[in-house]
Amino acid sequence: MIKYFCIIGSVVLGSFTYMLNDKTGYFYYEPIPDQIKEELFQTSFKNATEISIDDLVLVHILHIGFDNQVHKGRLIVNKKIANDIIEIFEKLYLYNYKLEKVELVSEYDYDDNLSMINNNTSAFNYRYIEGTKRLSNHSYGLAIDINPLYNPFVYNVGGKQVISPSIGSKYADRTIHFEHKIDENDLAYKEFIKHGFTWGGSWNNKKDYQHFEKEV
Ligand SMILES: [Zn+2]
After folding, report:
1. pLDDT tens-digit profile of 204-215?
2. d(Cα 60, Cα 123) in Å, to the nearest integer?
3. Which of 12, 78, 94, 113 falls 20 to 30 Å from 50 in CA-CA distance?
């Protein structure tokens, strides 16, 4: 798999050899840049008392898209998990794990549903847990959703099943095999668990197959 990937990497990015020798050159984090700060303060985040912008960092990664090409991705996470995120995404990249998009939710106007419909892998978003008035761990940058279209959030409201995003309904049946499905054999699952995260697919009353979070 690595050999196959080398071919892709060297075609798309001439510096692939360098990257293998010095992987962290492309995987790093920095304080939230001013432009992103300004955008964030134009959202409900400006009234946030539970989390400060200084608790968050911008992580830069590379990932392999569904087009088999190398792409740059960005994630905002809590600085307490920044090193975990870098190590996990480096591993996913080196093992050719496919992530369709890794863009900030600002690209989707902070609309989680729009981000999920676009199968966008993302972390920080100042928002409530769907169907509740409790702040999601995404609000603290301590949760991340991986390939959400193929790994929907499945829960019940008044005895009725809700699948989010709704266009991911065909992926709610986890007994069938399909690409990009996260289960306990999945590399992302194994890496997140190794780094002390829990998986939403292990929850009892609801199943959030895209979701990993860490208590810090
Ligand atoms: Zn989530």
Report:
1. 989 999 999 999
2. 13
3. 113
